[in-house]
Design goal:
Blueprint (H helix, E strand, L loop, with lengths): L5 E5 L5 H12 L7 H6 L10 E5 L2 E14 L1 E11 L8 H15 L4 E5 L2 H4 L5 E2 L5 E2 L9 E5 L8 E7 L9
Parallel strand pairs: 4-5, 7-9
Antiparallel strand pairs: 1-2, 2-3, 3-4, 3-9, 5-8, 6-8
The structure holds coenzyme A.
């Protein structure tokens, strides 16, 4: 495998089965109980802003974006991001995040939030959202609620419970 063989492209329905397998491998069955998953259940993700990395015909990594709302604020939520084990630590995850952020900005989205590790996402332009500003439908370590602001002031408008923008509220049970 050479990094030169890895290509990046918007995902299509043809990638779905492989993306599911990558997320199963990375997060296991517990992924369905995660706070971000509950929000993503509320509606579709944005195919045009979600990207895969491929090696030949094989999908080796995926990042998805979903429109969310919280109070008056609107944003995208990034995730899941997962890279096949044999392709980790080659810069593929960082590249997928960079592509997704750039396309989100071009599409006019004001902010991108996620639940993730600050040591990984901080250098990619994400900062902690002030504790208590937003809430998730499942408990989340507040230190892992991060945001990348595209338009000044956009993150401050995100308040209260985060939901899918289509309005189908996640059930917190
Ligand atoms: C996390 C993940 C997406 C990173 O993708 P990747 O392509 O392997 O990472 P990159 O090559 O872009 O970056 C590698 C660097 O990130 C670091 N890194 C990886 N995961 C990290 C984490 N959770 N926290 C801090 N740093 C991390 C690596 O140590 C490496 O550091 P280095 O450049 O100093 O050597 C990948 O390891 C993965 O799929 N993990 C399982 C699923 C997961 O945890 N997804 C993130 C959910 S928030």
């Amino acid at each position: 495998m050479s990094l030169a063989d890895v290509a990046y492209m918007p995902e299509t329905p043809a990638h779905d089965a492989e993306i599911d397998a990558i997320n199963e491998e990375a997060f296991g069955p517990g992924r369905f109980a995660r706070a971000a998953y509950r929000i993503r259940e509320g509606g579709p993700h944005e195919r045009a802003l979600s990207f895969v990395a491929t090696d030949g015909e094989t999908v080796v990594a995926s990042v998805r974006m979903t429109r969310i709302a919280a109070g008056q604020g609107r944003a995208l939520m990034l995730g899941p991001l997962a890279v096949r084990p044999a392709y980790k630590n080659l810069g593929i995850g960082r590249k997928l995040v960079a592509i997704a952020l750039e396309k989100a900005r071009e599409a006019g989205h004001a902010a991108v939030i996620l639940v993730g590790d600050e040591p990984y996402y901080g250098p990619l332009g994400f900062k902690r959202i002030p504790s208590g500003q937003i809430a998730m439908p499942r408990p989340v370590d507040p230190n892992r609620l991060l945001a990348h602001e595209v338009i000044a002031g956009a993150v401050g408008k995100l308040t209260g419970m985060v939901r899918h923008e289509d309005g189908r509220q996640a059930v917190s049970a």
